[in-house]
Specification:
The chain is α+β, with helices and mostly antiparallel strands and 206 residues long. It has a single domain, classed as Regulatory factor, effector binding domain (Multidrug-efflux Transporter 1 Regulator Bmrr, Chain A, Alpha-Beta Barrel). The chain is 21% helix and 30% strand. Strands 1, 2, 3, 4, 5, 6, 7, 8 and 9 form a 9-stranded antiparallel beta sheet that branches. It is globular and about 55 Å long.
Length: 206
């Protein structure tokens, strides 16, 4: 089953956490210098529309992802829905709290022809539209890409405003090569503060 192929990638990918440019709908605002290194992600500041999702709330270790996916996959296939990816929402950094304290959500975008008023089994909510740093990544590289982007946001004057989201794309038979999209909802800092990090300091000292 196509949906079960994502189970291994979910287990590998839950390490994601959480200048200036003028944003415009769907357009690049500010990106890092081009690099051939796979450790430097391709990313852009975009304005994302609101998205309605069907989801489950979860408490505890991310090792529960397979159980949640199995529950969803059976439901999706029984209704013959065309679901191409899953969306994870992670309010807490797994490096900051214990496994037992982790709160997270996993779901998928509501198919176009589904009447949400008739859904009884799962919760439905709307992820509000937002400006976000959108990062193209993979299961293999998403943990290091997530950390890289947090530093980049700090250096370039952005503040994260909502929990980190992760879209898991079911697009490769090899779990570590499955592509992911990391989403950091952000706003520009209201104060004009120059942030000096170790990376910018080292660059200035060269």
């Amino acid at each position: 089953m196509r949906h079960t192929k994502i189970l291994t990638l979910i287990l590998l990918a839950f390490a994601c956490g959480t200048g200036p440019g003028k944003e415009s709908n769907g357009e690049i605002s500010k990106t890092p210098d081009n690099s051939t290194s796979e450790l430097v992600p391709k990313m852009e500041i975009k304005v994302l529309p609101a998205t309605q999702i069907i989801y489950m709330t979860n408490k505890g270790s991310f090792n529960q992802h397979p159980e949640v996916i199995f529950t969803f996959s059976g439901y999706i296939e029984s209704l013959d829905w065309d679901v191409k990816n899953y969306i994870g929402i992670y309010p807490e950094d797994p490096d900051a709290v214990s496994n037992e304290e982790l709160d997270w959500e996993l779901g998928f975008e509501v198919p176009d022809d589904v009447n949400v008023d008739e859904l009884e089994r799962f919760k439905v909510k709307t992820l509000e539209g937002t400006t976000a740093l959108v990062v193209n990544s993979s299961v293999k590289n998403s943990p290091i890409h997530g950390l890289y982007c947090k530093v980049w946001l700090l250096e370039h004057g952005y503040v994260q405003t909502q929990p980190t989201r992760m879209i898991y794309h079911m697009d490769n038979e090899q779990p570590e090569l499955q592509s992911t999209t990391i989403i950091f909802p952000v706003v520009k800092r209201t104060r004009d503060i120059q942030v000096i990090t170790t990376s910018t300091l080292n660059h200035q000292l060269k």
